[in-house]
Specification:
- This protein is of the alpha+beta class.
- β1, α10 and β2 form a beta-alpha-beta unit.
- The radius of gyration is 48 Å and the shape is rod-shaped.
- It has twelve helices and five strands.
């Protein structure tokens, strides 16, 4: 047998309660035709008219105008007319008491303040049918009649009390469901807002990433190409002319490859098959060959793998520092030191160049730089380093060289920076 859900039970119960009064009224009228006028206090045709009027009354108020069921004051008018018709029926034929108890069904639709007198009214009508009619005036018949009505009132009150408790519980559950649905709607709205905010933040982060990558690849590559072409022009007619052109061509190819890798968010080529320390050595050697400036790389501590984003950050910091040295420092020597400590990994880049006055010209946090590197280099370095919870420090004085130090947490490989 298929199990019914609670809402299906409630629907069927409501259907039975709407149909039962009409069914019992019809049964009582049918019994009246079988018994005949002998057991009645009025002719059969009178009972038939009152029965049809009662059915029409219920049909008009509860079936043809179902919306009235939700208007307690209108239901009070309906209930008073129904009690009067029920009283007429039981006074004519006592067996209509089987029908009159359905009056309790309608009490829950009345204003709650009239529930007690409504219970007494239905109990009085039902008790009249049970006692066979009104008392004959004797003390005994009046006492019996009063006792029957009192019993009906007590039983009906108990039933109505439990009905009231059940209805109050249903209302509380309905209210809790509404509150839960409202909470879910609020949570959904909050979730939608968070998703939209995350999407916006993701767009901003991606733009910043692309800006840094373009600066670290195209801008640096183009600067190197320009430098080599200028050197080739100055060396025209000498043996170095071809070397500078070959270097410019190689830089163009490397920049194009790096730009493509940046668009696809791939790791820089030096880190594809090598660790950070080895990638720094390769990068320093290539830069030294192009610029003709000595670049030494020193590694201290126990080398270990770091998350890709940390290694990329330190490599890009070294590349940007070397570009700045080539463009502005006029240095004869550069030293790169990669230090693996217990909690930190530090990259220091020092040169013996002309230096600069850092105080009026380095404000990386508001997007400016030293005024010599295109307005983005040092700021981009600082954003990269802070993006992996690191810090960037720059020290420089005129004619005393420059030192850049980037420190990041020593996060083990496999973790998220």
């Amino acid at each position: 047998m298929r199990e019914l859900r609670p809402e299906q039970w409630e629907g069927r119960e409501a259907g039975v309660l709407r149909t039962l009064p009409f069914a019992l009224l019809a049964v009582c009228l049918l019994v009246s035709f079988v018994i005949g006028d002998a057991e009645m206090h009025a002719p059969l045709w009178v009972l038939t008219v009152v029965s049809v009027a009662t059915g029409a009354w219920m049909l008009w108020w509860t079936v043809l105008h179902p919306a009235w069921r939700d208007r307690p004051r209108l239901m009070a008018v309906y209930f008073c007319g129904l009690i009067a018709l029920m009283a007429a029926l039981v006074l004519i034929a006592p067996w209509y008491g089987f029908f009159t108890f359905t009056g309790y069904f309608w009490i829950v639709l009345l204003p709650q303040r009239v529930w007690p007198p409504a219970v007494v009214a239905v109990a009085a009508v039902t008790g009249t049918s049970q006692s066979g009619g009104l008392p004959d005036g004797s003390a005994e018949s009046i006492g019996i009649y009063a006792l029957i009505i009192a019993v009906n009132v007590v039983v009906a009150s108990i039933i109505m009390f439990f009905a009231y408790v059940g209805e109050a519980g249903n209302q509380r559950r309905a209210q809790l469901v509404e509150e839960l649905e409202a909470t879910l709607r609020e949570n959904q709205a909050l979730q939608d807002e968070l998703v939209a905010r995350a999407r916006r933040d993701g767009v901003v982060d991606e733009r910043q990433r692309m800006a840094r990558e373009l600066h670290d690849t195209l801008a640096q590559g183009l600067a190197g190409i320009i430098t080599q072409l200028e050197a080739a022009e100055q060396a025209r007619g000498t043996g170095d002319w071809r070397r500078h052109l070959d270097a410019a061509r190689d830089l163009a190819r490397e920049s194009l490859t790096a730009a493509r890798r940046s668009v696809h968010a791939m790791r820089p080529e030096p880190l594809e098959d090598a660790r950070l320390a080895d990638a720094l050595v390769t990068e320093a050697r290539r830069w030294s060959e192009l610029q003709g400036v000595r670049a030494d790389v020193t590694t201290t501590g126990e080398t270990r793998a770091l998350p890709p984003e940390v290694e990329v950050t330190l490599l890009r910091t070294a590349q940007e520092a070397l570009v700045n040295v080539a463009k502005h420092a006029s240095a004869d020597r550069v030293g790169l030191t990669l230090s693996y400590m217990e909690d930190l990994v530090t990259l220091d880049v020092r040169d013996d160049g002309v230096g600069f006055d850092i105080r009026p010209r380095y404000h990386a946090r508001n997007g400016s730089s030293n005024g010599q590197s295109g307005g983005f280099g040092l700021a981009a370095m600082q954003q990269r380093v802070e993006g992996v919870a690191g810090t960037l420090q720059v020290e420089s004085e005129p004619r005393a060289g420059t030192a850049i130090s980037a420190s990041v947490p020593a996060i083990p490989a496999g973790a998220t920076a």
